[in-house]
Amino acid sequence: MIQTLLKKMLAGQDLTHDEMHQAMRVLMTGKADDVQIAGFLTALSMKGETVDEIQAAAEIMRELSTKVPVMTCDQLVDPVGTGGTHSNVFNVSTASSIVAACAGVQIAKHGSSAASSKSGSADLLKAAGVNLALNAQQMAQSIETFGIGFMFAPRLHSAMRHVIEVRKALGIRTIFNLLGPLTNPSGAKCQVLGVFDKQWLRPLVDVCKGLGQHRVMALHSDDGLDEISIAASTTVIELHDNSIKEYRLHPRDYGICYNNIDEVRVNSATESLALILSAFSGETRAAFDMIVLNSAAIIYVAGLTDDFATAVSKAREILYSGQAKDKLRAYADFTQSLH
Predict the structure, then answer these.
(1) Which helix (H) or strand (E) holds 77?
(2) pTM of the full predicted structure?
(3) What CATH architecture is 77-155+184-336?
(4) Interior angle at CA 156, CA 152 and CA 160, nearest 5
(5) Tally of CA atoms within 13 A in the half-sphere of 201 that contains its CB
(6) Closest by alpha carbon to 153, among 190, 117, 122, 128?
(7) 183 and 208 in contact (C-beta within 8 Å)?
(8) What DSSP string describes 107-143?
(9) Which of 101, 236, 262, 313 has the fewest CB neighbours in a 10 Å radius?
């Protein structure tokens, strides 16, 4: 079957939803050898993935994942990025998740260790003393009782073991670079989705809509980040129920103005944590402002404010208060208690 689909893609033809379902089941259940996996992923990448193909692939990855059984998922928010920007900025979405949790947002963050950056979300949280070895039930307990839970992807997507080595050996972008942010095992319906390339904003929002999500902000900054930047404008495509709109966020509109992002680059998880803790202590420098903007996006997507400017004010208030520093420490202690 893989050979037939490979020939179809090499002829420049797209796969149907059902064909992509079948192919992903073969790849993710160990029924394809390494040569077939490499050929399929390469041909798909060369042809260019369609919205339908990405959605079908995400559906199978979700189906094969270990579910995190959160009682209510409609208001859960997953702040996540595709990665792949090689910008080496600190862990913006993870820090922003802590701030948003202080505002009352339920956070179901899905992530892993660093792939293309100096510090992945898992690396940062480990440095902060967070216990990453939680099972799915404990992750759900953390979300429901503490307001935040980190879902360590390798513990929940065991089917990835069938393709991971081929992905590493290929060394090229494949559909799996897009699938990580689309396969949250908690079923979160709201998302702040940072994207490595502006061209993927609308396709990924369309995929999210097809997967049943009802509130999404997909974003990419002019200086190449999968975050809201402090030094350049950011393009946003927002899904709210069935409505999709595009707009621009300008940091100057919120009193934030930097010439570049050099001050927020790091070389390790330890450096990232130090930068975040300084911002959490109210030190109003670049990291503080970066967290303000990206926390505001999470607060806004969660529906806690009607507009982005009010969310910015709320994020600033939390950072000045020191709540975020206390929340991170308490979260680490809470996860360590779950043995």
Answers:
(1) strand 77-81
(2) 0.93
(3) 3-Layer(aba) Sandwich (3.40)
(4) 105
(5) 26
(6) 122
(7) no
(8) EEEEE-S-SSSS--HHHHHHHTT------HHHHHHHH
(9) 262
Per-residue pLDDT of the chain (339 residues; tens, 9 = 90+): 899 999 999 999 999 999 999 999 999 999 999 999 999 999 999 999 999 999 999 999 999 999 999 987 678 999 998 876 677 889 999 999 999 999 999 999 987 764 544 567 888 999 999 999 999 999 999 999 899 999 988 889 999 999 989 988 988 889 998 998 999 999 899 999 999 999 999 999 999 999 999 999 999 999 999 999 999 999 999 999 999 999 999 999 999 999 999 999 999 999 999 999 999 998 879 999 999 999 999 999 999 999 999 999 999 999 999 999 999 999 999 999 987
Exposed / middle / buried, residue 23 (Cβ in 10 Å: 0-12, 13-18, 19+): buried
